[in-house]
Model the fold of this input.
Amino acid sequence: MSARSLTTLALAAALLGAIAHPAFAQTPPTAQLVPSASEISFTTRQMGVPVDGKFGQFTAQVALDPKKPETGSVAFAISTASARFGSAEIDAEVPKDIWLDTKRHPQATFQSSAIKSVGAGRFAVTGKLDIKGQVRDVVVPVSLTQAGGTSTASGQFSIKRLDFKVGEGDWTDTSLLANDVVVKFKLVLTGLPPL
Amino acid sequence: MHTAPRYSTPAIVLHWLLAVMILSSLAVGLYMTGLPFSPTRLRLYNWHKWAGVMVLGLSALRLLWRLTHRPPPPVPMPAWQEKASRLAHGALYVLFFAVPLAGWAYSSAAGFPIVLFGVLPLPDFVPVDRELSEQLKPLHHWLAYALGAVVALHIAGALKHHFVDRDGLLSRMRFSR
Done:
C-alpha cells in the first residue's frame, strides 16, 4: 500500500471517528457551576417521617448547547462526607460503612450518556449513577431556566437506597427506613448558551 | 366496700388506659435515650411519640368528661389530705398536657415532625430550630420526671387509703362491683 493511500485511510478513519462522536458537529461550550447558589438535597422517610439531607460539596462538568442537547454531556462528583441532616446524631452515623462508607467511597458520581430535549427548556439526561461503588442507570429530568446570564437547572428523581447498599444489616428493613430516596437539585450555571 | 360509689365507667376506662399508657411511655422514654443509634432506638422513639400524642388526645377527652360528670364524693379524710389530693390531681391534669406538648414541640424543633402511626403527619407548632430544641429537650425531661413523681405520690396515697386506712378508696376505680 502506498504512503498516499495509507494517509487517505488514516484520514477517513479519523473522519469516521469524529462523525461517530456526538461532539462532532461542534464541541458544546463548557458551563461553570456556581456552587454557593447550587443545591443537591435528598429526602427519605423513617416510619413515615421525612428525613431531609443535603450535600455541601460537589463539582460538575457541564458542556451543553441547549439547542443541541444531544451533543452535550454532564458529569458530577459529590463528596459523600459532605452529607448533612441537621441532626448531629445522624450526621455522625451516615459516614459509617453500612451507610455511605465515606472512607472507601469518598465520592458519588454521575456521568451522562445521552441528553435529549423533551420540551421547551426540559431535558431528559440519561446516565450512570455511582454511589458506594454500585452503578445504576438513571434518567434525570431537568428543567432549565435562564435569566441575566445565569442558567438554573433543576429537577428531582427517585432512587432506591438498597440498589446502592445504603443502610445495610438491620437497616435494610424498608418498613423502618423507606427504600425510596427523592433526590432534588438546583444547579446554577454560567456560560451556557441561550435556550 | 362493694357499695362504695364508683366513678362512671368511661372515667374508669380512661383512668386505667391512661395509667398504662403513661407508665409505659415514661419507662420507654427513660430506656430509649440510652440506646445507641439503631433500628430499636428509632422504633421506640416513634412509638413513644405516638403514645404521647394518644395520651394528649385521651387526656383532652378525659378532661371534658371530668368537667361534665361529677365524680363520687371523696372518702372521709383530714382536710389537709383532701387539699393535697386536690392539688396532686390538678398537677396530674396539667402534666397530662404539658409533658406530651413539650415532647411534641421538642420533636418538631429538632426537625422530626411527628407522623402518627407512620401515616398521619401532625402539624408543627414550633419552627425547626436547633437552639430551641436544646431548650425544649430538658423541659420535656423535667416535666416527665415531675409527672413520674406525682404519679408515684398518687399511687402511694391510693394504696395508703386502701390498705392502711381501709376506706375502700380503690373500689371507686374498679371496673365492676
Summary: Strands of chain B lie at 115-116, 120-121. The two ends of chain B are 9 Å apart (CA to CA). The first strand of chain B starts at residue 115 and ends at 116.
